[in-house]
Amino acid sequence: MTLTPLPVATVRTQVDLPLRRSDGHRTLARATTFDGLVDGAEHLALVLGRADRATPPLVRLHSECLTGDLFGSQRCDCGPQLDEAVRRITRAGGYLLYLRQEGRGIGLYAKLDAYTLQDTGLDTYDANLALGYAADGRTYAAAAQMLHALGVVEVDLLTNNPDKAAQLEAHGIRVRQRVPTAVHVSHANVHYLAAKARRGGHDLLYP
Ligand SMILES: Nc1nc2c(ncn2[C@@H]2O[C@H](COP(=O)(O)OP(=O)(O)OP(=O)(O)O)[C@@H](O)[C@H]2O)c(=O)[nH]1
Ligand SMILES: [Zn+2]
């Protein structure tokens, strides 16, 4: 990928959030908002733990999933991935970027429309395509802007999705290494994880 120049974004507000997660984990997050993000969405960065300046911070780009993150739906693995990310980034020191990209960018209502098609046998990507959307239309330019605004130029990236690393690199953020997330399997997400591995290019050992 070639380097794409981005408009400069700036930190707007930083404020502490004392977190008590549903898995019992407690931590202090420095919530950070921005001005000038390219897509105009209200993306949020959480600064967690203490980054050791000798090594790049651990960073996760987490795409919003209301059903999984908030309600604990087991159709996907987003909820446990979010818990894992908060714990691991607190330990290592780094940033969780909570990106407002519900449903891989198609929005909540369209994601639930796609779920109804998945209940008739389509996989997660074909359901998007049948509704006239891209299989995965997410871009991570705003995430790169957020990292630049935070003064971060090199990261260890917590993900199984190579596209996130490639897009950050294309926007001038060095990815020293991709750190895999655990594979969170449930009875309800086994086909979803298999589709991510087989068709989405995700590096995971699907069940
Ligand atoms: N359109 C659609 N979006 C989904 C579905 N299931 C989960 N999502 C969304 O997918 C996003 C999470 O992306 P994933 O593909 O699970 O994982 P990823 O973030 O690309 O990869 P990792 O960094 O390895 O976790 C969230 O925005 C979810 O709302 C689905 O069946 N259809
Ligand atoms: Zn989800």
From TrEMBL:
Residues spanning the membrane: none
PANTHER family: 3,4-DIHYDROXY-2-BUTANONE 4-PHOSPHATE SYNTHASE, GTP CYCLOHYDROLASE II-RELATED
Enzyme Commission designation: 3.5.4.25
Catalytic function, reaction form: GTP + 4 H2O = 2,5-diamino-6-hydroxy-4-(5-phosphoribosylamino)-pyrimidine + formate + 2 phosphate + 3 H(+)
EC category name: hydrolase
Gene behind the chain: ribA
General function of this protein: Catalyzes the conversion of GTP to 2,5-diamino-6-ribosylamino-4(3H)-pyrimidinone 5'-phosphate (DARP), formate and pyrophosphate.
The protein's name: GTP cyclohydrolase-2
Pathway membership: Cofactor biosynthesis; riboflavin biosynthesis; 5-amino-6-(D-ribitylamino)uracil from GTP: step 1/4
Binding site for GTP: 60-64, 81, 102-104, 124, 159, 164
Cofactor binding note from Swiss-Prot or TrEMBL: Binds 1 zinc ion per subunit.
Listed cofactors: Zn(2+)
Family designation: Belongs to the GTP cyclohydrolase II family.
Residues the record lists as binding Zn(2+): 65, 76, 78
One Gene Ontology term of the molecular function aspect: zinc ion binding
Protein keywords: GTP-binding, Hydrolase, Metal-binding, Nucleotide-binding, Riboflavin biosynthesis, Zinc
InterPro entries documented for this protein: GTP_cyclohydro_II (IPR032677), RibA (IPR000926), RibA-like_sf (IPR036144)
Residue span(s) of domain GTP cyclohydrolase II: 29-180
GO terms of biological process kind: riboflavin biosynthetic process
UniProt cross-references to Gene3D superfamilies, sorted A to Z: GTP cyclohydrolase II (3.40.50.10990)
Active-site residues from the entry: 136 (proton acceptor), 138 (nucleophile)
Gene Ontology CC annotations of this record: cytosol
